[in-house]
Amino acid sequence: MNHNxxxxxxxxxxxxxITQQKLAEQLNVSFQAVSKWENGTTxxxxxxxxxxxxxxxxxxxxxxxxxxxxxTEYEKKYEGREYYWGITPNRLCYEIMKLKPPVNxxxxxxxxxxxxxxxxxxxxxxYIVSAFDAAEKGLEKARELxxxxxxxxxxxxxxxxxxxxxxxxxxxxxxxxxxYLTPNRREIFIHNLKEHTTMHGIHALNVFVAKPFIxxxxxxxxAELRNEPWYxxxxxRYYHDWIFHKYEEEIFDCNSGxxxxxxxxxRMVAEKLPD
Length: 275
Hints:
This protein is α/β, with parallel strands linked by helices. It has helices at residues 5-15, 20-27, 31-38, 49-55, 60-64, 74-77, 92-99, 117-124, 136-148, 183-195, 222-226, 234-238; strands at residues 107-111, 128-133, 154-157, 169-175, 197-208, 243-254, 261-271. It folds into two domains: 5-64, lambda repressor-like DNA-binding domains (434 Repressor (Amino-terminal Domain), Orthogonal Bundle); 74-271, Vaccinia Virus protein VP39 (Rossmann fold), CATH 3.40.50.150. Helix 8 links the parallel strand 1 and strand 2.
């Protein structure tokens, strides 16, 4: 998927509440120059990139589309022949099919697809699916799973803390990945997702939330443990302007990594409506 510098600048600017005029003043350029960057007519001068990155609270590498995807601990977990998370689709996939049955060519984005079980399931049922993950080993197994089921899925590698959407989707799905978002990234990322969702499109999300009586999972990565956890109901404030078809909380048993433990998760399905 190609990186669009103009789209990235516009998305970051809007998420930070900065007008084109204000950005132009901070960079000592005309607002017409900013407008041309954002519509793709021109790109910023290289001498401006460091200052632009500082204003947009990002890095020059991110603006120009260079992403050094970190090696995650899941690379090792995905090395085995067996599928670490199994191949049974998440039940939110069935919620998607009830609300948006594949009678039209709906475009789906699966964020943090792991080994691809949900992306492949949705593709088998007629959706046009793109899916990304940070772990290349997981993506290799996901592509193999797609081949076994004779479906096409656009799998690609990306980091949730760096990736910015440039295409629109009808359905955005993610399960058990948003806890990797750093706290200062959450609102910006979700704003970007919402901006790139078609009208009446849906977001179907499973997000782990903290409970004082539930210990961290034994197979948690260091990145998970370092992040500030999500709390019950936190997702609702990011979707106050959408209609909720589902919002529930569940405590459940898990055996990932072969060690029994518990999780608490908020499950949300929300739909974008006209203002």
